[in-house]
Amino acid sequence: MGLGRIDRDALIAPYDVIGHPPAPDLSALAELAAEIAVAPTAVINLMGETTQHSVAGYGRDPGVCDRADSMCNVVLDEPGQVVVEDTRSDPRFADNPFVTGERAAFRFYAATHLRNPQGLVLGTLCVFDEETRSLDHRRIRGLGLLARQVDDALELRRRTSKLVDAVAELAEVRAELARSNEALHAFAGQVSHDLRNPLTAINGFLEELQYEVPHDTPSSEYVARALTSTHRMSELITDLLGFSKLGGQLRREPVALRNLVEEVRHDLAPALSAVGARMDVGPLPTVRVDPAQLRAVLQNLISNAAKYRHPERSPLIALHSCRQDHAWRIEVVDNGIGVPRDRREEAFSPLARVHDPHDSSAEGAGIGLATARRIITAHGGQIGLEASPTGGTVAWFTLPDPLEGGSHGAGHRPRSARVS
């Protein structure tokens, strides 16, 4: 690639060596170049648009000069290594100020290109002597091999600098996220307070009115509907406030998932019994999680499995687990109505409703899965929805297993659960 097509300043800037004291590793490589060539001077140069930057050297202090005066600029487009035994007899260098005595009086010159991983020339590793001399093929090859070491050292500096920038950016993002969570919590708390007071008053008036209007009349039905609406609004406010509180400090501890599932089964027993739901729980691991938050995830997924049932069959809910790389994958499988493929991701958005909102079996605020995703993400896992083999839904989530030793409660290999 020709020099005119390269922004050379942008090309060399990421290596973070310009304007800094010489790096010890680069200075050592320059000294080794002088040893290989048995020369008094060696320099590592990076070539900018109009300036040559000597970033490390031996026998000569690093510095800056115009590219127009640079000896290395002359050979930047040469196809290979350059070795000049007497610069005065080479027309490329005879009038150069580093040869004529204006800036130096170099007679011997040898240079090897420095390249980035894409093969673009960054500059040169060059050696000088004020005496004419020659290099045998072994020393020339040694300078070529050493130049590749300079390439590696520069690339390591570039990647290290990029990593430092990425870490700083991540820290800034985390700080901003913490500020955002605090603001969200404060806002939700204020809104919750502002809404609950009038809602409580409305609910109280409606309850009083319920006793005043005759039963089995249109008026009583209107009051009942209004009370139901206020209850739903109160639940929505509670859900939104809980959603805003997530993302804080997790209280991780070893938890047997089977125990959590049994607690959830007990809590949901009336709802499960009302729809004739059965549960099949396979072996589940012990993991380090926040038990209260993970219980909320399991309660939401199991509740959904019972809620969105198929009208022609009783709900059957299966829970099982399997290893997936360095994590556990937990699945809640149902035989219900399923979630359309193109709406599975939408289901995790706050207030999203992917089923018919007029279907009485699909009641809910649309907060549950959004809350579950925030909890699982805070634990370092992922969560998603898939189709089950019988047309229902597989709600799955992963939990990292950093100790590689999470045990199954029954001590057996995980088994798959089929729902029929």
From TrEMBL:
It is an enzyme of class 2 (transferase). Signal peptide: none annotated. Its main location: membrane. It is found in: Cell membrane. It catalyses: ATP + protein L-histidine = ADP + protein N-phospho-L-histidine. Keywords: Kinase, Phosphoprotein, Transferase, Two-component regulatory system. Residues 190-403 form the Histidine kinase domain. Pfam families: HATPase_c, HisKA. The keyword Cell cycle does not apply. PROSITE patterns: HIS_KIN. Its EC number is 2.7.13.3. It comes from the Bacteria. This is Sensor-like histidine kinase SenX3. The lineage of its organism: Bacteria, Bacillati, Actinomycetota, Actinomycetes, Cryptosporangiales.
